[in-house]
Amino acid sequence: MVAPHEHRGGPARRDILRGALLGSGMALMGGSAVPVVLGSPARAATKAANERILVVVELSGANDGLNTVVPYGDDAYYRARPKLGLPAKDLRKIDDHFGFQPRMAGFERLYKNGQMAIVHGVGYEHPSFSHFTSMAYWHTGAPNSGDAYGWLGRLADAIDPTANPDFLVDVQSGQSLAVRAQHHVPLAFDDPAQFSRGAYFDEQAALRTLAPGSTPRNPTEAFLFQVAQSAQTAEQRVHEACSTYRTPVDYGLVRFGLERVAALIAAGFSTRIYYVSYPRNAFDTHVYQADTHARLLMYVSDHIAGFMRDMERLGRADDVTLMAFSEFGRRVNENANLGTDHGTAGPVFVAGSRVRGGHYGEVPSLTDLDDGNLKYTTDFRRVYATLITQWMGCPDGTNVLRQNMAPLDIMSV
To answer: What is the largest CA-CA distance in the chain?
Structure first.
């Protein structure tokens, strides 16, 4: 059986040529090599301003959901965490059962303004405790499938199969599997000042033949010249957008990428999907978790809340929805090192002016556990299905996710 979006008999000749060019012309970003991507200023300028945008934030390392959205109303939480449990009096309470970690002022504001949905108990069947494996499941949206494309890449292909050069942007030092697509090559960069096309020594001569002004001798060279010029244009546009963007909005102490997303949106990029990852697997808090986790949550909360305020300032709040997730949660009980070990289910956050704020999904029991871990109550692909169908307006969510998943009633659209 041939999977959707795959070519029978192998990739098309044009795809091979494009891959060859991108393989020889790499973008060097912060010392990492990732594919150069194409840009089209004319297309960006003519895109409808009200097209919906999805921003996905990855909190890599496995965030401790129980110390993020704290179930202070359940005594079992404090029995499981006699030292790491956060006192109820210190929390940013959002109801008579839950409160945000004390430093999460940004998330508290979004939630109380009705602009944040908290989806509880998010996970999947037969969970993996490996960061790499579990993240691959979340990236592909198809656990144990070995799928070559990411769920966001398949979504891009489903919405626009014509290879829109700006459809996907990945703000991190290496391209995520989540945005890998058949028809789209994501624009991937970390530091805009270092976003440029480079090459290995033995590839430089070939790239020089693709310099602007060269005359193609055949349709194949014409295509390669077009791709090379587009890549060069993308570099220039990213530099310009990020270097000239100014905002009075405070994005917090640690800016990890959303300010660059705002710059591209303000510059008129036609991007519909942005992917941003908190760097260095920071949420893997096995030892002395309390202070580290509190700082991380403050950084994330302030940064996301700042971004949402900036969207309001730009007049794009109704066009942008953000989802934040982690590959799995942590165990219910604290460990002997004043940290928490790899667990299973955790909360997912969806924020935006079109979001129906509140709690979604069944709250997992803290006493009815699976070998010390929470039993997941909401399949993560239901969150994906919500964003695919209700927000991005793609009717074929089943094809994107490889199976039918019922969406949640989160979006007010």
So the answer is: 75
C-alpha pair distances (Å), 189 with each of 26, 27, 226 = 11, 8, 21
What does the domain layout of the chain look like in residue ranges?
18-401
Select from 3.40.720, 3.90.930, 2.60.40, 3.40.50 the CATH code of 18-401: 3.40.720
**Backbone phi, psi, residue 169, to 5°:** -130, 130
Cα angle 126, 127, 131; round to 5 = 150
Low-confidence ranges of the chain (pLDDT < 50): 1-49
pLDDT in tens, 129-167: 999 999 999 999 999 898 999 999 999 999 999 877 789
The pTM score is 0.85
Polymer length in residues for the chain: 413
Running DSSP on this structure, what letter comes out for residue 391? I
- Residues 186-228 pLDDT 10s: 899 988 876 655 556 776 666 666 665 677 888 877 766 766 6
State how far the Cα of 381 lies from the Cα of 119, in Å rounded to an integer.
12
Question: For residues 352 and 350, what is the distance between their CA atoms, to the nearest angstrom?
Answer: 7
The angle, 0 to 180 degrees and rounded to 10, between the axes of the packed helices 201-208 and 13-24 is 120
Q: What's the CA gap between 308 and 74, in Å, rounded?
A: 32
**How far, in Å, CA of 252 to CA of 300, rounded?**
8
Structure tokens given for 25 = 């012309």
**How much is the pLDDT for 216?**
81
Q: How many CB atoms lie within 10 A of CB 8?
A: 5
Residue matched to tokens 């519909």: 272
What is d(CA 30, CA 279) in angstroms, rounded to the nearest whole number? Answer: 13
Contacts 24+ apart (CB under 8 A), 389-395: 391/52, 391/54, 391/321, 391/354, 392/52, 392/54, 392/155, 392/159, 392/272, 393/52, 393/159, 394/155, 394/158, 394/159
| Cα 102–chain centre separation | 25
Are 262 and 311 contacting, i.e. CB atoms less than 8 angstroms apart? yes
DSSP-assigned letters across all residues of 158-202: HH-TT--TTSEEEESSS--GGG--SS---EEES-GGG--EE--HH
- Phi then psi for residue 157, to 5 deg, are -65, -35
